Amino acid sequence: MHCDRVWRDARLATMREDLSGLGVIEDGMVAAQGDRILYAGPASEAPALNPIESIPCAGRWITPGLIDCHTHLIHAGDRAHEFELRLNGASYEEIARAGGGIISTVSATRAASEDELVADALPRLDALIAEGVTTIEIKSGYGLSREHELKQLNAARRLSEKRRINVSPTLLAAHALPPEFAGDADGYIDEICANIIPAAVGVADAVDAFCENIAFTSAQTERVFRAARGCGLPVKLHAEQLSNQNGAALAARYGALSADHLEYLDAAGIAAMKRAGMVAVMLPGAFYFLRDTHLPPIAALRDAGVPMALATDYNPGTSPLTSLLLALNMGATLFRLTPEECVLGVTRHAAQALGRSADIGTLSAGKRCDLAIWDIERPAELVYRMGFNPLHARVWGGQ
Ligand code: DI6
Ligand code: FE
Predict the structure, then answer these.
(1) Distance CA 175, CA 144 (A)
(2) Against a cut of 0.85, is the pTM above it?
(3) Among all ligands shown, which has an atom nearest to the Cα of 176?
(4) Which of 109, 175, 177 has most ligand 1 atoms within 8 Å of its beta carbon, as the pocket-test mutant?
(5) Counting ligands in written order, which one lies closest to the CA of residue 290?
(6) Arithmetic mean of pLDDT, 245-274
């Protein structure tokens, strides 16, 4: 059989669901035809292949390319000054209520052109790419008007013209209240439902909201969800990060892909997520940066069988983290996820959180040939080390 490329003498962590754990295959081989995996499995069972190029891997490990399923990568400016304020005693809520926080990034992002937003994001994207990330979700949420939310979404999409990466843009217009709607959150929700969500169809892959006492109520979130579903867009939610708003259960009622953060998630929320087949996206970078102490209910999520993903939550305010490998380490050290859960959290379960399980997240014939090839002796090393990058090679779309 003809094929373009073969990676041989490799150990595979396929992440396949029909295999246990990480789906390990010693003495494995991956073959690509075009941008797809033609074969991934034991070398001994491979069909006779006649590759144009055969790449020896010397026993290295191959995983699916990593997926960062929750980021706010597109924005202008930074919040180093706010960081200083917090270190001098101010809380996140106090800074937000005083007009700082998200709104200061909104001003900078509105003032920036689409080209500037793309250019500003590239170094951050490159840091993730250097660690084997091949798919990234990027939220808007710093534009807060139709014009500027679309500018952010378009900038996110354009990153895939600049780099070899899959980008999944998410509309997060319901992130904060823009100044021109001060005192009229319901008016802004009207604007989102009537004008912003319909304009995002074909540009955004999903719609998110920030359901929190410093952001939008569950009733307002529900209106956003109804409008999104009415336009055929899937939903997801920033839920129970700082308090329990029953956001995860609300998201479950709208068939959400995921609920993210979840520090204050309760038993009813977990049960609802399980019934709806949702993914719990854990974001230890924000937990760490905010010096949070209220742990998400990891053991209960595990016992309930809710798939858990891990992501950077890269954003300038609460998680200026551009290392997915460090997020893995934090998932283990702070949240007590097992190394196996951590690695599944940036591959198969992250793909599920993006609604892209059919295309990415496991080494399976027919899926995209997005690979990370690692200089490691065992997959737990990806989680164990801090600030070390063992990536040997990254393959995107078979190349
Ligand atoms: N939760 C967060 O942690 C970030 N947004 C959100 O909904 C904060 C974003 C920011 O402060 O800029
Ligand atoms: Fe976030």
Answers:
(1) 8
(2) yes
(3) 1
(4) 175
(5) 1
(6) 98
